[in-house]
Fold each of these.
Amino acid sequence: MEQARETGEHLREQFGDERVSVYISPYRRTHETFRAFDLDPARVRVREEPRLREQDWGNWQDRDDVRLQKAYRDAYGHFFYRFAQGESGADVYDRVGAFL
């Protein structure tokens, strides 16, 4: 969290008295990091945006299945391979691109 506190200090210097909007993912870790920035809530409008969440890697319970899926990914291509019950890099690109 030290890095987040230092980043917050830098952001406060950059923003000054300016009002800003911030978009964060719904994940707890993202909220914790944002809180560590210690930005003035009167100057920051926070919006939770589910399209900004990290990649869903799917179900990784069965070791043999994981090995098989990794082999498929290596053969098919890392960016386009979709893990079972998960997302491919292309899926993430499309999801985040729709937000931007």
Note: The beta strands are 20-24, 44-48.
Amino acid sequence: PQLLSIAEATADPANAGRYIAVTGQATRIEEFTYSYEIDLTDDAGNTLLLYVDKLTNLNTDDLNVGDRYTISGVLEFYQGKWQLKPRTPDDFQQVFPPVLRLTLEAPNTVQPGATLVYTLTAFNHTDASLTRLVITSAIPAPLAEVYDGGIVEGDTLRWEFPTLPPGGDFVRVHFSVTAPPDGEQIVHDRYGVTALEWPEPVTGPPFRTFIGQTVPIWAVQGEGLKSPYVNSTLQTEGIVTAIFDPEDIPGFFIQEVETDDDPATSAGLFVRAEDFPAGLAPGDRVRVTGRVKELSGQTELHLADLTVLAHGIPLPDPVPLNPPEAPDEAIRYYESLEGMLVRAGGIAVSPISKYGETNLVRPEWHVEHVLRGEAAGFLITLDDGSWTERYDDASILPYAIVTGDAIADVTGPLAYTFGQYKVEPLAPPDITPGDFERAPTLPEVGEDGFSVATYNVENFFDDKEPNPSSPPRPSHREYLHKALKIANSIAAMGYPTLIAFAEVENVDALQTVAEQPPLAGYPYQPVLIEGRDSRGIDVGYLVRTDRAEILSTTLRLDDEGLFTRGPLVLQTRIRTTGGDVTLYTIANHWVSLGGGFETTESRRLLQAQWNLDIAAEIQAQDPEANIAILGDLNTFFDAPSIQLMRDAGFVHVFDALLPEERYTYIYQGEAETLDHVLVSPALARRITGVTVLHINADFPPANPADDSPRRTSDHDPVVVWFAGQP
């Protein structure tokens, strides 16, 4: 395959379907039900998603985050993202830096009095031979035998080699010791290698071999974010603390009562099991055998064998969760408790999601919302005892939580899935409703002004084919229900003069909204031109023709694939008592954050410039033109793409709001600004008010019987009022 940089691979659409190779560092490795995903990041910070279908029988067991690889595969562009799909084990090649490297291997357990063999391997990854190579090792237990020409020098073993060729060549030596009759472990923490050309000793981390049959849970978890026993098969023991429905969480949690005194190591562990004894219950003491894996960042033991040693053992006391504010400290804090029973409660700063997750903070932090960019290590995620998406609407939620609700303490094991530490409760929480306003409404603008809104209505598809695979095609009743909720949202916004929408399938869907009873007496005309989005979602408008006249509509798609949902430029003449106002609105739905902010913001910068070029064309004809660039821009208030438009003279309407008022979306407990309105200087002089109508982001999935504006979408709408006279 041709070796390309990630930038080269993803810059040319003609590369789609080609068999290529790229080199970079693995920055994320996650296992999902049907696939593995790897983020490969190069030295320039570019990231490419590697998608490994499990049907290929490939796995990522031997890959490690932080290591460097050259990976080959077929490059595809799927749902707006570049993906590289490896095919065979040979498509994965680890790339080592030009160094002298040393590894140590030995069993993780040994019986008292038995022989324990250590293997030391030195690798030369440089491009030149290394001479006078010397491997040394301490003797961690009574010496049994030295192999491969090693000699004993006091309490040290020594092997000498005249030369070690370059290019990854290696030399391997062995020695054995006798395990003592008593004691808990043998720790080998002093071994190294040098060469004439590499005089600084290369050493390795301490290696623990436990005397007996089992490795304690604290050792399996280790001091860091990753188990030192990944891909090792071992036995361990603990008390079963939690078992959930296997369709929701496929396994159980165990915890040891007698553990080490290192606060950095956890005493709990998740045991992943497709099948285990039906009578297994919390309080059972078990010995489990299996392979240690880091699945999506969670240390797990994949069960091969289980023996119940005792029943009815009291469960360990749960640890009260009190994470620190600093994110780095919070990660270490949570990792030290992964798999253990914990107790948590607090004030909800997000609603329960379709995944059953809610984010809390302890009351002493006095926080109503956690704003993106703030230090938020103190966030606590409460799950629902399930690792699946299963709540399409509130009718099947186990309980409903709204931002501001108080959650009494719940107990459960601390898991780590989908990038979050979360408490899996053993029983549903007690909820005390907060005072978050349930049904906010805005006044209608008078005839002396006009109002403009932007609203992402989240997957508003009609009930006809074609329809994307996700979400499923709605029934006719579901389609009309969504249209009614959108109409009620428009009423709650005060019937804006003009509304720019995102995620609408077609103009007929907007017409259906306009025909709903709440909009009777308000003649809204739909405007939408189909784009080229793979799922069929577009931007569009509803315009009140009693207050505005549509003069022109243009879809501004580029020729290079920068947009799939091109900016929709609408020119209107708005009638006010202060005179007619010509308004240009440029409705947008920019590329998503799905690949991460850093890797996708460069494209949004280009999309911002495309909008500025459109605005410049308008201003070339009328320097005082009233222009609004608006929509779901999928970026943040302080992002470079937003700053680019500020630098060009556009004013962000949220400058008039406090930071805690600007959010339009809540993601994993952090309130974010994804929806924006930026206006030209002439239009900025007309602003009389700005509001984010918080009817969605703070609420759980809607009940099918609820036709109110609440949770019509996952985004909150933004409404801006303007004066007829500047």
Note: The longest strand covers residues 19-31.
